[in-house]
Amino acid sequence: MSSFSSTNVAGKRKSALWQIRSVASRESPKVSSSSSQQQKKKKKYGCSSCLGIFDPFKILQQMTMASGNTSCQQNKKRISLPANNKKRLVAIKGGLGLPGFNLTAHQEARLAQKRSAAIDKQIERDSHRQRRKAQVLVASFKRKCEGTNLLLEGLSKHSSSDITDDPIAMLQQRPPGATDGNASMTPDAVSKVRNAVLKELKRMLGEIRWSCGIDVDSEIHVRDLDRIAVLQMGCRDIHRKIEARLGEKPDNSGDRLDEELAAEVKSLWETPLWLAECYSRTASRSKAFDDIILNLLPRASELNYVPTASDLSLITNLPSNFPHVISNSYEIDSTLINIINQDNIPCCAPIRKRLSPYLSDVTSALVLVNLADYTHLSPEDSQSDPATTNGLYYDLLHFESYARYLNRILGGQGNNTKVLVLLWNRSGFIERLKTGRYPFEKYFPDFQPGKDKHLRFIGEKFVAAWQKGGGRTKIEIRAGEPGDAEVVKWMGNTVKQTLLDQGLCELGVFKPRMAERSGNWYGRR
């Protein structure tokens, strides 16, 4: 029987085409020779005993390149359509050419071409991923968590980044014109410092007001007269005075921070009830509180105040001056995606769909857990169900849902991702335990009191919630403060393990918005 010419066959041996040499050969199935009509049909439809047909398994065996090999910029094993006459291609079933399947080989070749193009595209995506940098998805159980500000402050202080377009690195830069001595004595410099002080005080009061559920424009149903009176004095009177100061137009002589307002703020922070509330709301625990309330505020309230270089550097690192922007360009090889302003990101499915494709296989999650939320002062807790009043109970449910969400976006990434849980505000937690009306074991009967057993117990609860939610990635729990150098180093080293040989300065920080406990949580649809 005739076969294809040698020129048609020789070009296909190197492109994963296998040959059927003869219908009557040893490799071919046996065919009955009693009928001469079959021979006539084969001649009529141009059937040949040597057909080139694509073998997908053989081409996959010949492709030895790894998906993450960036040295292979293109797929050299690309498959093209056969160069011979496509009309003469027929399929073989049982060694016989059947007219009804004369397009099978052509379709197989087209599918092979699509597979090859898909492999090229995958290799290109993998090369982009190799150039990406380790990312950290920062999350908390409250809409406004000062732990995130402390974390960014710690990154800005302890990072070794020299990248000029990095907003975290820009926080370290000295303001223009600043020297080791006194800075410029122009009214602009004085106004800049005083306005920054007022904005930071406003941020602190606003955080306490939001966490306590206090509205500055409406009256409140009084339960605890002493506590509410103190909160009203701080969150209403001082808040309104700060709003009035910020709304005033600057005079020619420069803004002057009222000494009466400074004395009132300092007196407020010396009130025991207010200080205890600050411990629970975390507004007074940051470095900014010590620098602003105890140092910069009294000096800035003086009439002849002259800002120094350290003052200008201090206001640059205040949490209220952190860059609150959301990047409009989600490039696949972007080194840092700034999603810091939680108010600009709605808690909805479309934004999750936009962000999920850009979370690479080196994305880890850092969950900030404020320990001061897990004790109660309300007398009504003794008469209600602990499951409906305990903050830890709700956060564990949210963390279980968070495990499901992370599995959806990071579940197929293998061992490259980790979930870090940071138990912070330990001092506030201890303070609340001392001033609390009810012991911790009231809400958790399985808790065994003892020294340093609270943190271990809470950590075990989060591990159990993670496993209950089906978490497949690794989880690591640590107690510490977000701004400490040891915590920042721990976060960087943990993320870098088994990932990339990159420094801490190459960490990208994601901060999605999480809804309130009573609303739709970020991990739910």
UniProtKB/TrEMBL annotation:
Keywords: GTP-binding, Magnesium, Metal-binding, Nucleotide-binding, Transducer. One of its GO terms (molecular function) is metal ion binding. GO terms for biological process: G protein-coupled receptor signaling pathway. Gene3D superfamilies: GI Alpha 1, domain 2-like (1.10.400.10), P-loop containing nucleotide triphosphate hydrolases (3.40.50.300). Mg(2+) binds at S320. It comes from the Eukaryota. The keyword Lipoprotein does not apply. The keyword Ribosomal protein does not apply. Residues 21-40 are annotated as: Disordered. This is Uncharacterized protein. It comes from Podospora australis.
